[in-house]
Amino acid sequence: NAGVTQTPKFQVLKTGQSMTLQCAQDMNHEYMSWYRQDPGMGLRLIHYSVGAGITDQGEVPNGYNVSRSTTEDFPLRLLSAAPSQTSVYFCASSWDRESSGANVLTFGAGSRLTVL
Amino acid sequence: AQKVTQAQTEISVVEKEDVTLDCVYETRDTTYYLFWYKQPPSGELVFLIRRNSFDEQNEISGRYSWNFQKSTSSFNFTITASQVVDSAVYFCALRTTGRRALTFGSGTRLQVQP
């Protein structure tokens, strides 16, 4: 059981380039999300999805795009990378479709992105 | 507004010492969930505990214990007889009914010296 798999683990981009961070889970979780982790700021929610075809914005969505065509995959796209997007990105999922708040998120191992 | 404050940025202890990591939260919701996650040097986030707002019973799991006090809006985490393997960044987080996001504190880096 792989859990939540993120690729790539490391990426260096130049300003203006685009790229996609991949996230896949094999737990049949309906809820998936992307967070970014910056020094001294904890983790902040970028986008989330409660099922295939359904996505919504989190706290810091600007500059990012997501789609959810299958239950398993939730890619995060950077349309035109900026140095401010240098961060560590975490994908997380849970089986909770309702917003009760109770369910525990399972996190991927993270993707470290540097934008020059 | 929701907020989680972990005032201790970094703590350094010597192995076998007890250490408490503080977490103070703010929310106007009456139903909410509090979490602790551990982030070891390898970088992944590991779930440690979840506590709901209606359960103020303290919890002990091996060397780990958690003290939840609604009166002071605190959810502190104590490691007894710390070990080098406990060295990590520890995050406290809050999630309320109806909100999709976990609100994280800024984390406390714990260094356990041998």
Characterization of this structure:
The complex is a heterodimer of chains A (116) and B (114). Chain A is mainly β and 116 residues long. Chain A has no helices and eleven strands. In chain A, strands 2, 4, 5, 6, 9, 10 and 11 form a seven-stranded mixed beta sheet that branches. In chain A, strands 1-3-8-7 form a four-stranded antiparallel beta sheet, with no helix packed on it. Chain A is globular. Chain B is an all-beta fold and 114 residues long. Chain B has no helices and twelve strands. Chain B has strands at residues 3-5, 10-14, 19-21, 24-26, 32-39, 46-52, 59-61, 64-69, 74-79, 88-96, 103-104, 108-113. In chain B, strand 7 (59-61) and strand 8 (64-69) form a beta hairpin. The radius of gyration of chain B is 14 Å and the shape is globular. At the A-B interface, strand 5, strand 9 and strand 10 of A face strand 5, strand 6 and strand 10 of B.
List keywords for this structure.
heterodimer, A: 116 residues, mainly beta, 7-stranded mixed beta sheet, globular, B: 114 residues, 6-stranded mixed beta sheet, 4-stranded antiparallel beta sheet, 12 strands
The largest β sheet of chain B comes out as: 6 strands, mixed
First-last Cα distance of chain B:
41 Å
* Unreliably modeled segments of chain B: none
Distance between the termini of chain A: 36 Å
Tell me, rounded to a whole number, the average pLDDT of chain A: 92
The coarse overall form of chain B would be globular
